[in-house]
Fold each of these.
Amino acid sequence: MRHDDPRLPTSPGFWRSPLRGTWFTSVLGLVLLVGITVLFVTGLVSYAAYNPNLAPVNDQTPDKGILGFYLFSWPTDPYWLYRLTQGLHVTLGVTLIPVLLAKLWSVVPKLFTLPPARSLAHALERISLLLLVGGGLFEFTTGVLNVQLDYVFPGSFYPLHFYGAWVFFAAFLAHAALKTPTALRAVRHLRRDEGELAPARPDAPTVSRRGALWFVGGASLLLLVTTAGQSIGGALRRTALLAPHGGADPGSGPNGFQINKTAAYAGIDARTTGGDAWRLTVTGRDGRTVRLSRADLLALPQHSAALPIACVEGWSTADQWWRGVRLRDLAALVGHDGDPPDVLVESIQLHGAFRRAALRANQVADPRSLLALTVNGEDLSPDHGYPARVIVPAAPGVLNTKWVARMTFGDL
């Protein structure tokens, strides 16, 4: 068969939908231009929150090189910062899925055009398009799987999503630089029929392009209202039908709020956390070490803070009322009486990532940063980290280590 045979996708006659055209694709492209830029920025922010310019303790991408140029000490104010940025990242990513799929559908004929390259510039454009399409599908797919807690790709989500984001966004920038002027002209002048994307022999229309855009927008709106509640909380949590942490709060009472992993999943044995079995080891300046029972911790000055838990999957809790010992007071016990240093926190959990997590000095120094012993007036439940857990304002949930066994203060 010849490549211009209308039965083959390489033939312009194969693609006959009257919806395709410069105007339709341009509208979708401009929406993605804004949305993907916000996604990329909030994704970088999330990475900075996980690894706030520390030693490699929290670093899931040790070979990042110059890609970590922007890392900074993650702030503790406003205390809901990570809840906002990661909730926006995940909710917007899910909401943009119909727009992305519609955009890919609108340009798919270009992937089959022959010859593959008419010039060096055309070859570079085709390569950037392949990276754009492949990178976009990879980033959105891995992101959705991680949100659904059903991650199936080989290797860790963090480096794959991080490096994939840089490859995708580089191709996205190149494509945007080439196509944004055309898209703006097409939308400004309402040129709905011109352009190489329009079919050579269109079929009879069954819906207008404007109607198709309304359909895409309605699908995005549906995903928005069935996802956003996991970040907003309150009564809206029940609308988060597509989010694993949507719906009603698990259980009831003071400990009846969302968790990511249970004590059973983490391999926590009640025999190692109850009674006299558990001790917290705190090490500081010149190797000074103290070992504290839960009763010892309760005898220290107790402080309270109302803070949420916000996770990389986009879900967050409402503010919970935590009470325990300030991290900076624990630092003072082992010789750090002035400005407290960084701290390495280690858990007794047997399974799962971030069994060891580091916090920056500014996070330790915040008076709301606690080694919490109770929540909402009641002892922590095993699933919420009994006998003691860290809670820090604006920090990602995985850095609020549960089932803490050891804390080492000093430069990391």
Amino acid sequence: MAIIGNIIKGVIEARDALSKATSPVEEQKKVLIELLGQAKDTQFGKQYDFATILKSDDPQKTFAEAVPYHDYNKITDEWWNKTIEGKPDITWPGSPDFFALSSGTTGKNPKRIPVTKDMLDSITRAGRHQVFAMSNFDMPADFFEKEIMMLGSSTNLQERGGKKEGEISGISASNIPFWFKKYYKPGDEIAKIDDWDERVLSIAKNAKNWDIGALSGIPSWMELMLKKVIDYHNVDNIHEIWPNLQAYTSGGVAFDPYEKSFNALLDHPIQIIDTYLASEGFFACQNRPGTSAMKLITDNGIYFEFVPFEPEYVNQDGSLTDNAPSITLEDVEKDKDYVLIISTVSGAWRYIIGDTIAFTDVKRAEIKITGRTKFFLNTVGSQLSLNKLNDAVKHLEKELNIKVPEYTLCAKRFDDGFYHSWYLGSDKSLDEEKTATVLDNYLKEANKNYKVARSKALEGVKVNFVPQQIFTDWNGANKKKGGQVKMERVMGEDRFKEWEDFISKQS
């Protein structure tokens, strides 16, 4: 009998039963007041007169009117560079001990995002929130005694100017509470291995020594790790190694494109739980079955605003126009795409994280990630967001009975005009012209803007099949293998030329 598991499950269920209903809207108002109060004496707080905003009859409105939007370049040039130099009290009280490195999708110089103690506490509380939500999923008691494989970046953080730097998953794992370490795999020693391939090989060698009940990590890299374990032990599926595996916590990207290829690695379905953890914070997690939507964590040091994701408000590089309006949680609408804006306990203020989201349930504050502002394909008016591209690939998988976990595309000019040029990662190569027709027909049927574009300047779709390994090798060549790395789904023409040159050298 799972005695400890029953105790843990009982505590979780008791807490859930005793918890009071809360209002996400009211929680957000309180969070903003707390943020402004804590930061009013920083250089940023004085510049934008947080003390006066706090006295306003409507702090949310006054805050939005007083403080401009910031992308990473703007807030770094004007403020965070001072924080990086070690100066205290710039955008948040004190000086952070950590910086999260985020190289985005271009492989250029990494971003350095402050991670304060308050943010680490926020991430820990969000993790507890997720654990407590497990009471809604009816997991058996013995699940709470199993180990958790957390596949993130290396925890071997680098020293720079007296501060520690690494990807957010590595920072979070290096600050795991002592009581959780007995459940955490692959453990401190393996987690510190910098080289991704060496780390995964070590996981494969030790896999049979662990009783894994849950997985956590980005889908593309999780799949590669599972395949390595399966191949190393010469078995058919991962349940032959970890028979008690019952849940997978995905995060950071939509799971839909990976669903078919991920399930092929299992003996039977497991519970998929989506989370939304970025370098800037832990924003949301799925807290009930029957939906893949995630509940915004609205009482945890992060204040959210939302800009309607309309072409007139979003520039081609993903930045916002000066006149882009923002709304609060109180005024959002269901099934409408928004650019997510955050203000946090790490001193990010009206910060454009680059993601787009949509609300699936306004009252519950439940969302889904719909894409990236930079991955919005609007050349010649086609207006395709990432979720629409993912839907098209999912349709393709079903229609042609293939698995396509990775893809990228570009609106590229050929001699006879613009085409959407797709590269599909699949180890099963099909007729490319037929595949292009299936994609084109689906997009015309599902998206009126695409259909209009096809009747004007967009000539059609071109498709190329490449092995799935090409995408992994591309990320590796850009020094971005493993951890928080996400493949860029939409590329500009210059970047796409680099991609096609890379492919030509592989053949």
Amino acid sequence: MDVNVDITLNNETDHYYVAIDLGSNSFHMLIVRENRGLIEVVDRVKDMVQIARGLKNGVLSEEAQNRALECLQCFNERIQEIPAEHIKAVGTKALRAASNGPEFLYQAEKALGVPIQLVSGYEEARLVYVGVSNNISQDHQKRLVIDIGGASTEFIVGQDYSPRLLESLSIGCVTFTEKYLTNAKGELDITPKTLNNVYIAASEELEGIRSIYRNEGWDITYGASGTMKSVTEIMPIMTPAGIISREGVNELYRQLGENKEIKIDNVTKQRRFVMPAGIAILKAILDQLDIEELHVSDAALKEGLIHETIGRLKHHDIRDETVTKHIAKYHVDRSQAERVKHIALSLFQQLQPACVDGINCTSVLGWSALLHEIGLTISHSGYHHHGRYILENSDLAGFNRYEQYLLATLVGMHRRKINQNRIEALNPAHRDAILSMAICLRLATVLNRKRDDLEFPPSITWTDKTITLTFETQWLENNPLTQRSLTQEAEYLSRIGIALNYY
């Protein structure tokens, strides 16, 4: 494990923030301090766990899990004094791909002591861009950012702080090493033929984005990963520091084919093992995207996590922007959405249910209320099912995979019959909290059926299996359509064993 800086934290822990990136090649932990608006690095810890090497036929091996858990226990020791809301931990491609990933994540969260969120490839790419764009000068140039990881490679074209194109491809230095450069004994097998196999495989993956990206164009290219940093250290001497040239990578690729290795000082054994694949992948990227040189950035996903965490705690949340964009894109009636949100949150706050660890249930319920009619642009009939499908399959910037799943689930459950199978499929530990959110959203849509402001929201109690709504005197008699809708809602809820009373 590589520890660059080690400064003991003082009692002013509210100024400290932690980002933990459980990458397919390396696990990274970054601890920073915010000092009068500036972010100062306090500690960096890296362990080349290479969890992707332990992914066999989609199953994460016990050996790989043990390496990971040992690393996370060390991380846990370092962050115990820092507020949990200042710590962000995410898992990427290898953990997304593992069929036994959920079981491992349960153990991993116990070892680390904080929730771990899986992020999609799109979100991984966006976070990389956030990290890089906040650590370079804003010269208004259009930039391409590339991050070669252990199991995936991210490509982002953006300008200043705004990404335009984001893609994550299944190209990784660890997975390609295992697949193309490792023999039956687990030893490296580097020949011109095996290197070419890596190059061809990477090139084939790149075909899907080559035309789109080259047509978009960019002014400057940045590389962000351990592979990129290692390659800069072995560039031919005529290459400027911090820059990777296409000519230099071609020379490294040629030397690898001839000598079957490249002498690399001050590089760990694990990094040396995956470097040949990294060089072949990099050559394919430079050739396919016609890049002559790229600048290497010190920042990547973990720095993006830091900026996201600080932004959210200072009430600048990219997820709010994502929801607003989708409201506009699907022509959602914002006034009605806000009415439903107001009543749903009013009911939810009265219930004060247990919530899901690592998830701000109030925020997720609010966003689901704002988006509950997103499917209306497709069809009124079954629009809640259309809404669920849109949210399940959209790229939602800022949302991790579980948050996106919750958002889609709530929208899909907000009206008509409640699918008992969907309830049973929920995580048992989270079922009550999610059902509370869903019922509050359902009741809010019923109470706002007139699409007019509700002056007197009802009070709500939930005891055992009975929900009771209490309205102002004569309110129900004066609103017979709402009363009829509540009768129908009571029938729907009774099918899942919940009684709804209203007075």
Amino acid sequence: MIVEHLSLVDFRNYAAADVALHPGPNVFVGKNGQGKTNLAEAIGYFATLGSHRVSQDAPMVRFGADAAFVRARLGYGERRIQLEAQLNRSGSNKARVNGAPVRTSELPRYAQVVLFAPEDLNIVRGDPSARRRFADQLLIQRAPRLAGVLADYDRVLKQRTALLKSARARGLKAEQLTTLDVWDEKLVALGTEIILARVRLAEDLAGPLRTAYEAIAGADHDPQLEWVSTIAGADPEDDGDATAGAVFEGTDATAAAFRAALGAKRTQELERGVTLVGPHRDDLLLRLRGLPVKGYASHGEGWSVALSLRLSSAQLLRDQLRLGDPIVILDDVFAELDADRRTRLADVVADFEQVIVTAAVEGDVPAPLRARTVRVEAGTILTEADEHAAAPDREPDDG
């Protein structure tokens, strides 16, 4: 799979832009703040329905505009698909596939993208929400229908939490709040599906993660990952518990544990007005040499783990999907790596069908990835003709 053409209207700092891309490496070079990352962000949106930089869509709409439009023509061998996303500053977004309206949640069925950026260090060093977000975005690419499950869970969670807050304000006791049972069952049904999907994801990533880490770091530090689950009694959001809880096998056992955990926490939830149990509070525990990466790994090891998570994601999608390789995007990554890791990373991604790289300094990008370089300046894609026109006159002065 490759992006053949990308078109932007009122997206970030682009009033309008069109850029052709090619198989293999594509490098966008420009000073910071010129719009390189915006191109990567636009492509990534089709796969994850979000940005790797912000949690809301409104910042992606150009100042003064009501909506941004992102269009991409994807190539799968001889097949071509045109995707379009309309990101509205307010109201629901819209989407089209080959000109026909579709639900926005349908877009990840057609686009698989793995994007690595400096912000990804937050996956290994940040709060549990960063690791949940990483996992859920990959889940959506593996099974696009889970976008709907995650959205429904979030809706039910908000409604249940609002009920808890209302009950707390009215001074109700747990036994007086019978309507909570209805929301509990909805939360359990949706949450169980998310929990089991995340557990399977961790299991499937384990092998590719070890391979990717050794390729990037040049060492075998036994990287591992597993879920810390609130339905097993952990509370990573409150106490940072780094001990993985029990794993429940099967839908019935997981649902029963979820239901029991909600019952055990009900009084505490009413006192705090917060839903304390469910996948919205779980954490993905990452280990090196048996120790949690967060708090124990060095800066270089943290970078290697973050890179390995993305590269193992790309390998997982490559092995399991029928649309060809995922598009690999490396957004301003090479400036953060030493020479050895730069070379190792370039070697790992070189055989993917399409690799898109952004960099402030072209020399930071290893030579094998510089097959085609495009310069970006102030929201403008510069062609070779543009660059020649902007170059100073070198002919001798007659005076």
